[in-house]
Structures are given as C-alpha cells and as structure tokens.
Amino acid sequence: MDEKKIQEGVRLILEGIGEDCTREGLLETPDRIARMYQEIFGGMGKDAKEHLSKTFHVKNNEMVVEKDIVFYSTCEHHLLPFYGKAHVAYIPDGKVVGLSKLARTVEVYAKRPQMQEQLTAQIADALMEHLKPQGAMVMIEAEHMCMTMRGIKKPGSRTVTYVTRGIFEKDTELQNRFFQMVR
Ligand SMILES: Nc1nc2c(ncn2[C@@H]2O[C@H](COP(=O)(O)OP(=O)(O)OP(=O)(O)O)[C@@H](O)[C@H]2O)c(=O)[nH]1
Ligand SMILES: [Zn+2]
C-alpha cells in the first residue's frame, strides 16, 4: 500500500472541504488515516488460499456452519462502513478446515472496498475453490452507513444477501436447513 499517496489524498480532501491541514488537530490525521487504511483495507492483495489450504480429513460429511461472524467492511461507492454478520456453511467432501479459517476468509474479502453481494459470493467461491466441498452457502446481514448517516437515511434497515454453490444450489431443503440454523 502506498501510504504517501493516501496521506496526500487525505490532505486534498481536507483542503477540499475548506479545512486547514496545518492546525494542530489535523496535523497527524493524514498519517493516522494511512495507517488505518492499512488495517481496514488489509485484505488487498491477500489470498484466502493461505487460510484454506490446511485441511483435516473427516469421515462424516455433515454440514458445518459458522454463524454470526461479525465483520466490518467498506462500501466501494461511498467509502463508508457497512458491517454486520456473516454466516458461512459448507458440506465437506472428506475434508474440513479449522473453524477460525472461515472467519479469516471473511476478513480477507471484507477488508477491501466492497459491495455486499460481491463479498458474499467471494467467500463462497473461495471455499469452493480451495476446500472443494460438496457445496457452500453464505449469508450476510449488514447495515450500510451510506444508507443511514447520509442519502436516504434509513437507520436500522438491513441488507440481506446469500449465495449457494454446489449441492446447495438446487436443494431447497438443504437451503432451508441452513436458514434454520442461522436464525
Ligand atoms: N448493490 C449494492 N449497492 C450498494 C452497496 N453499498 C452501497 N450501495 C448503493 O450504491 C448506490 C450508489 O448509487 P448512486 O446513485 O451512484 O450514488 P448516490 O447518489 O450517492 O446514491 P444515494 O445513496 O441514493 O444517495 C446507492 O444506491 C447505495 O445504496 C452494496 O453493497 N451493494
Ligand atoms: Zn455506499
């Protein structure tokens, strides 16, 4: 990440809104924001493969659901936060990953400029690609600050997205089991 560029950009924005970048309270702000972006956009250039390549063999191919994974992401249209919970499920095909790796996969894709639909799909696609389960299903419920603190201003409204992959795609009974488990 180019911290210098971020700092310059923040200075330009502050000047653009009529602020004085040399006043005491703002002196360190460009540097702080550059450091913060390292963190909140820390998924840039990362690959979920890193987390999903270590697997454990299992005999039992029952559905695994990791639910209520709290995440914070940034909407790519306004660069404002959207945040909520991700529910990640898969049906193994002889192997599973460590539970924490599902949350780590969510983090890789949440920590980028994002759209919720794309985030939902990327998590499921990463599971399918690297773990090769029989199927995967991901659901995300989130509040978008671009919908609450500005624009249409609808606090409390939540956006719900889900994707199905593999055997989840056509099996509505399986989908319903997932919905029941994450409720
Ligand atoms: N589909 C989708 N839309 C999003 C997401 N995050 C923000 N948006 C929407 O992106 C749209 C951008 O619309 P524009 O009309 O280009 O921008 P705008 O004038 O700021 O829109 P308003 O928010 O309606 O004021 C808005 O409707 C946002 O609500 C997301 O994750 N997915
Ligand atoms: Zn937005």
Automatic annotation (TrEMBL):
Gene3D superfamilies: 1.10.286.10, 3.30.1130.10. It catalyses: GTP + H2O = 7,8-dihydroneopterin 3'-triphosphate + formate + H(+). The keyword GTP-binding applies. The keyword Glycosyltransferase does not apply. Pfam families: GTP_cyclohydroI. Transmembrane segments: none annotated. Pathway: Cofactor biosynthesis; 7,8-dihydroneopterin triphosphate biosynthesis; 7,8-dihydroneopterin triphosphate from GTP: step 1/1. Residues 6-182 form the GTP cyclohydrolase I domain. Keywords: GTP-binding, Hydrolase, Metal-binding, Nucleotide-binding, One-carbon metabolism, Zinc. Zn(2+) binds at residues 75, 78, 146. Its EC number is 3.5.4.16. It is an enzyme of class 3 (hydrolase). One of its GO terms (molecular function) is GTP cyclohydrolase I activity. NCBIfam families: folE, PRK09347.1-2, PRK09347.1-3. Belongs to the GTP cyclohydrolase I family. PANTHER family: GTP CYCLOHYDROLASE 1 (PTHR11109:SF7), GTP CYCLOHYDROLASE I (PTHR11109). Homopolymer. This is GTP cyclohydrolase 1. It comes from Maccoyibacter intestinihominis. The gene is folE.
